[in-house]
Specification:
The complex is a heterodimer of chains A (302) and B (361). Chain A is mainly alpha-helical and 302 residues long. Chain A is built from eleven helices and no strands. Chain B folds into two domains: 178 residues, Rossmann fold (3-Layer(aba) Sandwich), CATH 3.40.50; 75 residues, no CATH class. Chain B has 14 helices and twelve strands. The radius of gyration of chain B is 21 Å and the shape is globular. Classes of the chains: A mainly alpha (302), B alpha/beta (361).
């Protein structure tokens, strides 16, 4: 240890950092740089952007009517003249219906997950942070919800609310809150033992402030990855609800319902019948890939 | 190694000379036990801190030493109010902290308390939010306490310079800094609200020796310049000796000895302190520590030994040790020790006591 002379212990004599350069890059810059190197993530992002944009601009991209078909042209194969992706059992252009169907399917896939993520994260992180009997009550209620099979719960909620897109969204939100709250709670429990949480408590900051400023950013990754995995499932459940007459009403195009209605033509026109499934798969896997890429890019400790 | 004397600092000298003022911090008979579930139907209590009392004077440093698991960190958290106290009182400048926290007389009372007591944490990795920039980390306490944006920025810069960092470091993230730099940030954050008392919980234990020295000297410089009072907790005897004016030795949640640093290291009275000091490795020991280190393990705090908690490992244990808890008595001027060897009435034992003989030589 160096000898310390009180007289010399002025700021000038103290060990200090030589002129430090400004931080090489900010957090978001670093995240962007890493994402720029993530090929898979970029492809997934491109695919999703394409799906969303084509759903939005469907009327510009195709001239066919998505609801009324030409019965004479029914069940054409992929690559038929005028119908690039063939037609369905009522002679409606498949490409048109897939583009328009993306609107409902993407909404039904993403919106419930988004809402459930917000509610589930709030409930879960609160429970994980405060513990005690209120938290126990919340989490046991979540366990009860979680005990029901996903589809059954969605049907039950949806049936009690009646058909329609809004009710489908509400039903699926209810279904997803429980698992998301559990993921958020587990992640929060891991974070709250860190000393920086104690440091924040020591300043006198209230629970909501600590949750928002200290906890949220640190539990984001696992929640995000889990939620993105639910998007694909969400589209499929929305499809199941439509099939049961609880969701979107036919003849409005929706991928899940199209998959069901084309079931009967699978021996005649298997490739066309598989198309809606392919789109659900594409959306779902792209979401997963993108979420993984974003998680990797945001992970500063990596 | 010269010790930086606090008397040389005019600010501290004035405060210290004010005899009528209550001590900055007074801990009175504080206890805490944590419930643990031993089996689904059986609950036990871990006695983490038991009847701890001590005072910290303005502008001084009180060191707390002891093995890991002896309740040092719990004591720190009890004082700061991070954990609720079971029994006893903590007084800050003569005012009961618990009362001030639970029924503040003015809305600012509680804030004031928060501002006055801050902590430097042990682990430079876990103590800083990995998703926040250094600037955000240091200014967070100020944000909570309603400083304006300009004040926050200005003070963050000043604090960074105070702890030997550069204003540019505000834009860094914790993972872009070294352990020593992170610990400096940790200190800067503790100083953000200009506290009177700073509790350093193993503040340098996670650092390399060379970096430790830098950070310790920084803490001393800051104390002299800002008139800080430290409660310095560590298991490292050398570090505590270097930092402290007074030292408190803890064993299994209880204070066993407290006196000024020079006296404790020169002439330890309690058998535990003696064993602790004897087991410190020294450069001039050719063949390891002189005295054999303590035998046995720390007893379980779930069922601490009756009477004196150290008796199970004490070479001088007597019958009375199992029956009565030794009070913390003043065995010599300003030298308090909790051991039956030094209790009035056991004088005859004292005469034959090898512990006393060892310390008296």
């Amino acid at each position: 240890m160096t000898t310390l002379n009180p007289a010399a212990s002025s700021i000038a004599a103290r060990w200090r950092e030589a002129d430090a350069p400004a931080a090489p890059e900010s957090y978001l810059q670093a995240a962007r740089r890493r994402f720029m190197k993530h090929r898979v993530g970029q492809v997934a992002f491109g695919v999703l952007a394409l799906l969303v944009l084509s759903a939005i601009f469907a009327p510009v991209l195709t001239t066919y009517d998505p609801i009324v078909g030409t019965p004479a042209d029914r069940l054409k194969g992929i690559g038929s003249a005028g119908h690039l992706l063939g037609t369905d059992e009522q002679g409606r252009d498949m490409l048109t219906r897939l583009l328009y169907g993306g609107r409902l399917s993407l909404i039904a896939g993403i919106v419930p997950v988004l809402i459930a993520t917000v509610i589930g994260t709030a409930l879960g992180s609160f429970s994980g942070y405060v513990k005690g009997w209120v938290a126990a009550l919340i989490m046991r209620a979540m366990d009860m919800l979680y005990a029901f099979p996903t589809v059954l719960l969605a049907i039950a909620v949806s049936a009690s609310l009646g058909p329609g897109l809004t009710n489908v969204i509400i039903a699926m939100t209810v279904v997803y809150i429980a698992p998301l709250a559990r993921v958020a709670e587990a992640a929060t429990r891991r974070v709250v033992v860190a000393e920086y949480i104690e440091a924040a408590r020591l300043t006198g900051a209230g629970t909501p402030k600590i949750l928002l400023t200290q906890v949220l950013a640190n539990i984001f990754s696992p929640i995000f990855v889990y939620a993105s995995g639910l998007v694909g499932l969400s589209i499929v459940i929305a499809a199941s609800l439509s099939f049961l007459g609880l969701g979107v009403k036919p003849p409005a195009p929706e991928w899940g319902f199209m998959l069901n209605s084309l079931r009967g033509t699978i021996y005649v026109n298997p490739w066309v019948a598989a198309l809606p499934g392919f789109f659900i798969f594409l959306t779902s896997i792209s979401f997963n890939m993108l979420a993984d890429a974003i998680r990797d890019s945001l992970d500063v400790r990596g | 190694m010269t010790t930086l004397s606090v008397e040389t600092d005019p600010l501290v000298a004035v405060v210290d000379g004010d005899a009528g003022r209550p001590p900055l911090l007074e801990v009175r008979n504080v206890s805490k036990s944590f419930p643990v579930r031993l089996s689904p139907f059986k609950k036990g209590y871990v006695s983490a801190v038991d009847g701890l009392s001590f005072t910290v004077k303005h502008g001084t440093t009180v060191g707390i030493v002891g093995e890991s698991g002896c309740g040092k960190s719990t004591a720190a958290r009890l004082i700061l109010g991070l954990i609720d106290i079971d029994n006893g009182d903590v007084l800050f400048e003569g005012r009961n902290v618990k009362a001030q926290r639970e029924s503040p007389q003015t809305p600012d009372d509680r804030r004031e308390l928060r501002r006055n007591m801050q902590m430097v944490f042990q682990d430079p990795h876990s103590a800083l939010n990995p998703r926040a920039s250094i600037g955000e980390i240091i200014s967070f306490p100020m944000k909570v306490h309603g400083f304006s944006k300009e004040e926050q920025q200005e003070r963050t810069q000043w604090l960074l310079e105070q702890v030997g960092l550069h204003a540019n470091h505000a834009s860094y993230y914790p993972h872009q800094m070294s352990g020593g730099q992170r610990q400096r940030v940790n200190i800067a954050r503790a100083l953000a609200l200009s506290p009177r008392l700073v509790v350093c919980d193993e503040a340098v234990s996670a650092l390399d020796k060379s970096v430790q020295a830098q950070v310790l000297n920084l803490l001393k410089d800051l104390q002299a310049e800002l008139g800080l009072t430290y409660l310095f907790i560590s298991h490292d005897l050398n570090v505590v000796q270097y930092m402290s004016d007074e030292v408190l030795v803890m064993y299994l949640g209880q204070a066993v000895e407290m006196t000024d640093s020079a006296r404790l290291y020169a002439k330890p009275l309690h058998p535990y302190t003696q064993a602790l000091l004897a087991s410190t490795p020294r450069l001039d020991d050719a063949d390891g520590p002189v005295a054999p280190p303590l035998e046995g393990e720390l007893p379980s705090p779930l069922a601490p030994p009756s009477g004196c908690r150290f008796r199970t490992r004490c070479p001088y244990a007597m019958e009375v040790c199992a029956q009565e808890r030794p009070p913390l008595v003043e065995a010599a001027d300003g030298h308090r020790v909790a051991c039956h060897l030094y209790v009035e009435g056991s004088v005859e034992m004292r005469a034959t006591s090898p512990a006393l003989a060892a310390s008296a030589s």
